[in-house]
Write a sequence for this structure.
């Protein structure tokens, strides 16, 4: 755990890569992830006396970063809709079956898994980041684990289906 | 128990997609953030003091300075009435007809000399109506009006108005049309005040106007009027952001005996349904509750779905929902069954302009495959072509995946005697939307107790912490839900008690409750 005597530089060097990764795969946009992670650690630096004294500086930083990312994406979505601009491309997860399966989880489950296993946050901290209760975090993670276990198992083969037709 | 996910943490450190900024960059950004915060605080103080003075004298005046963002007027208005959720008129005025509403809006707000009105065919004269106003000097303006017991009003004008929050404070975001010289922003709050802001945006840009110390929840509606250099209106946009008095005694309704509780035969548009209500225990009792119609004028332009049941199927078993164009987050491989928890099966197939996505419960992989293979897209909508492969199946619901309207009744759980089990807010609803069942098979559910002899399901679909849903008849789904307490055995029992008491109201009965109206995407 990071305490009040921890040096900021050492702390952010440890936190930033995980934070950036969690944001990138939670929101599917590496540009937004970079900006949100940078802003969150800058805000932490700006008030490091208070943040470093918190029980979980990382939890606070993730909460700030996820809020910044949501706002950036909302703003971008508005601009795209209003100005007709294109939304930048999304980030692909590292090669690997596990990343593919995690990326395919429903958004809430995916974010909970990333915060737990990439951010290594506790369930109550995840709840604060996602704006949900600890109980909901638990049930969300359980559902995600069920899906992950199921996806990692073999699935039954079925006959190929025909392409659907269009009638106009 | 978690599967082994240590690879995620290792990859995050080994191959992070983001760059680690140098500490000097972090320090510089922190310094910039500090300067911005101090400047915002100073501007807020400069704005708040005059506003307080204006509030005391109830005056209207220009505050000062040429700044682009400033509060111009603050005045007291009557507290919100049952017209409180309208974007215009504000303050409320009882327009007796839709035509009078539109004519007055054109005369008072747009002041366009020549306007052509177009309405979609088949508009219900007594239901919410959309209209497009076309003038030679401006872009077409789409608007949605709704009736209430006290008259007609607009619930949405134009599009593209959004609210963002920063540090708990809201800001309105909109696009300033190219000819705009000035934009007037009128904000109506739940406290009954109307605040006016004026901005001089760069034409063609996206503008963000902070709404002072208001909380996001306090903003009822916003109307933005863009004028050009000559003072002529070039465009208007308005929308709602909150519903007044969601739960409380403001619009107390005494449930009346149900005279026409039989649901319509066969799949019916949900606009023809009333709503589910929970009658009081005795004839002299009543609960304070409010009713709400969530209209989605764009629903028909979104995906469409079909609910298919085996002859022995019911909600939550031996059923499939086929949606086009379907969303699956990119996780499905065309033609390959994906098995999800609870025996749910997902299957995707290519369609003309997007994928057909089908989800099923209680069906075999071969049955789901046959259903998808029998699906044809006609004019952008999925259709099941009858044939021997799908013999024994019946289509019980079809339509836009997002319902055009959701009728909700909202109660304080306390008044219903279920606060301990369910928390603060309880709600009821009824829908023929196939999207409810699609969301059910997408998100997962658990079986619930019988309601009136019919199987029920418990899920998070419909909002809140839990929703217990059952079929009144094939394709007509009723539900009760709560927001406040986490799902558990006590909660499900309490929802079951409410479900057993709930009754279906006819459209006429529903209208007597004077429902509030909001326009929004009706996602399940």
């Amino acid at each position: 755990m990071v305490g009040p005597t921890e040096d900021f530089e050492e702390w952010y060097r440890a936190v930033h890569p995980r934070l950036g990764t969690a944001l990138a795969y939670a929101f599917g946009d590496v540009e937004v992830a970079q900006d949100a992670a940078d802003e969150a650690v800058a805000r932490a630096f700006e008030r490091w006396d208070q943040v470093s004294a918190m029980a979980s500086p990382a939890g606070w930083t993730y909460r700030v970063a996820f809020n910044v990312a949501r706002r950036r994406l909302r703003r971008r979505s508005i601009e795209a809709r209003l100005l007709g601009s294109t939304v930048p491309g999304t980030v692909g997860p590292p090669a690997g079956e596990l990343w593919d399966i995690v990326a395919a989880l429903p958004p809430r489950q995916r974010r909970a898994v990333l915060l737990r296993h990439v951010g290594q946050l506790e369930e109550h901290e995840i709840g604060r980041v996602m704006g949900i209760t600890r109980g909901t975090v638990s049930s969300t993670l359980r559902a995600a684990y069920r899906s992950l276990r199921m996806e990692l198992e073999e699935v039954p083969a079925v006959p190929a289906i025909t392409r659907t037709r269009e009638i106009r | 128990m978690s599967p082994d996910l240590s690879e995620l943490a290792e990859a995050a450190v080994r191959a992070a997609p983001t760059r680690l900024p140098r500490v000097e960059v972090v320090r510089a950004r922190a310094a910039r953030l500090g300067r911005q915060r101090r400047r915002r605080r100073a501007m807020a103080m400069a704005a708040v003091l005059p506003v307080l003075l204006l509030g005391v004298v109830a005056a209207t005046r220009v505050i000062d300075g040429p700044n682009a963002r400033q509060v111009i007027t603050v005045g007291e208005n009557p507290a919100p009435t049952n017209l409180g959720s309208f974007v215009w008129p504000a303050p409320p005025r009882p327009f007796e007809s839709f035509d009078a509403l539109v004519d007055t809006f054109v005369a008072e707000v747009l002041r366009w000399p020549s306007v052509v009105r177009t309405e979609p065919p088949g508009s219900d004269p007594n239901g919410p109506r959309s209209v497009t106003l076309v003038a030679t000097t401006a872009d077409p303006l789409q608007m949605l009006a709704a009736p209430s017991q006290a008259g007609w009003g607009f619930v949405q004008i134009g599009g593209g108005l959004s609210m963002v929050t920063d540090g708990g404070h809201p800001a309105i975001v909109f696009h300033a049309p190219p000819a705009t010289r000035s934009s007037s922003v009128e904000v109506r709050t739940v406290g009954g005040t109307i605040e006016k802001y004026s901005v001089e945006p760069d034409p063609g840009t996206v503008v963000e106007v902070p709404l002072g110390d208001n909380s996001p929840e306090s903003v009822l509606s916003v109307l933005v009027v863009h004028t050009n250099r000559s003072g002529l209106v070039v465009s208007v946009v308005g929308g709602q952001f909150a519903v007044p008095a969601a739960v409380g005694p403001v619009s107390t309704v005494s449930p009346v005996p149900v005279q026409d509780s039989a649901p319509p035969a066969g799949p019916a548009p949900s606009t023809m349904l009333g709503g589910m209500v929970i009658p009081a225990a005795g004839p002299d009792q009543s609960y304070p509750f409010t009713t709400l119609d969530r209209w989605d004028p764009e629903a028909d332009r979104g995906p469409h779905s079909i609910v298919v049941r085996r002859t022995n199927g019911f909600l939550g078993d031996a059923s499939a929902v086929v949606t086009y164009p379907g969303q699956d987050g990119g996780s499905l491989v065309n033609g390959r069954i994906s098995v999800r928890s609870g025996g749910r099966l997902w299957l995707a197939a290519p369609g003309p302009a997007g994928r057909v996505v089908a989800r099923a419960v209680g069906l075999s992989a071969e049955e789901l495959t046959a259903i998808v293979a029998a699906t044809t897209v006609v004019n952008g909508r999925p259709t099941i072509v009858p044939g021997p492969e799908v013999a024994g199946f019946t289509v019980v619901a079809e339509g836009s995946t997002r319902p055009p309207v959701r009728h909700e009744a909202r109660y304080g759980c306390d008044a219903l005697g279920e606060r301990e089990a369910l928390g603060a807010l309880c709600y009821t609803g009824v829908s023929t939307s196939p999207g409810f069942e699609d969301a059910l098979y997408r998100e997962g559910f658990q079986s619930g107790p019988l309601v009136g002899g019919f199987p029920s399901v418990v899920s998070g679909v419909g909002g809140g912490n839990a929703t217990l849903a059952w079929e009144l008849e094939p394709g007509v789904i009723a539900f009760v839900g709560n927001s406040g307490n986490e799902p558990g055995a006590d909660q499900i029992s309490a929802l079951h008690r409410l479900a057993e008491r709930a009754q279906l109201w006819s459209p006429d009965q529903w209208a007597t409750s004077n429902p509030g109206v909001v326009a929004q995407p009706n996602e399940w």
Remarks:
- The CA atoms of residues 24 and 30 of chain B lie 10 Å apart.
- Chain B touches chain A through 69 residues (CB under 8 Å).
- The longest helix of chain B spans residues 23-57.
- The radius of gyration of chain B is 26 Å.
